[in-house]
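Reply to dn_fold:

You asked what the input looked like. This is it:
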Amino acid sequence: MATVSSTQVMMKEQARAAELSQALRNFRYKGKRLPGIATPADLDTLVAQLIESLHRIDYVTRITNRPVSPQRLDPKSELFDPLRAAVAFKKGGQLEEAFWMVFLFVHFGKDLKHGYSLLRAFYGAFGEKFLWTWKKYSKKPSDFSLWFQPRLPEIEKKRKTLKFGNHRKYESIRQVERVFESYLDWMGGPGGSHIAKINDAMAKAGNDPKAAFDRLYKDMFANVYRFGRTGAFDYLTMVGKLGLAPIEAPSAYMAKATGPARGIRLLFGGSPTFSIPAKDLDALAIQLGAALGVGMQVIEDSLCNWQKSPGKFISFRG
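and this is what came back:
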């Protein structure tokens, strides 16, 4: 198989950036150019954020096509990686565990300095000789409560190294038990199944990937504690990207967003507080995605990051 050189990759990326830049310059809102990218710096920064968001999606695609080391599945190992673990579980036919791994990944996130330390601590049972797999947790969640409560003080003492990722930075370790319980309830309670949940949503949506996503999103938003718009959106888009379910985001759900909505207002109105009716935000995001040829996750992610620093590119991770 022919390899792709770094020069070819760079040329392809430059061509994509040029396409995005031209599409943004051509886009019209109420007959006028987008005021949020009136300066070259603002335009270039938004394009850079779009490219960065595309990279994140490409990364998931790449790891699904590569072999996975057993250490990536072991929370006792520094090499543990929940997304690669999900890929391996899917390939091994352990779909329930793959879904569970995505949930843990989204809930705990990845800290910039300490990585997946918090996720590893919980999934790896804080160093004990067993793992809190989906099968073990979902079969008898009361066992998790009996394990968790006595260890909570010790876990909290290590909060300097056991941290949530940036998207979950306002979460509390004390709420983990309730989050887990609400997720299990969403799956149907003890013995619940991700596969059954997905199949039910697909059937009710007439096997329409976008309609199924929408049903699952609204259901998760309403029922999984502390997930809200961002958590539900991130979870379901990752499930789709990993190929665990044939679902695709139909919109960016901007009406309930903060950062992404500020980005839309800045881009279309020149100010993050520009008045755009909440009901129109999603329509604008969909129009923009179609014009740029990118999905809703790219729009949501790039606009959120761009509005934080519209004139200078900053890579936001974690």
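Residues 67-241 form one domain.
Hope that clears it up.
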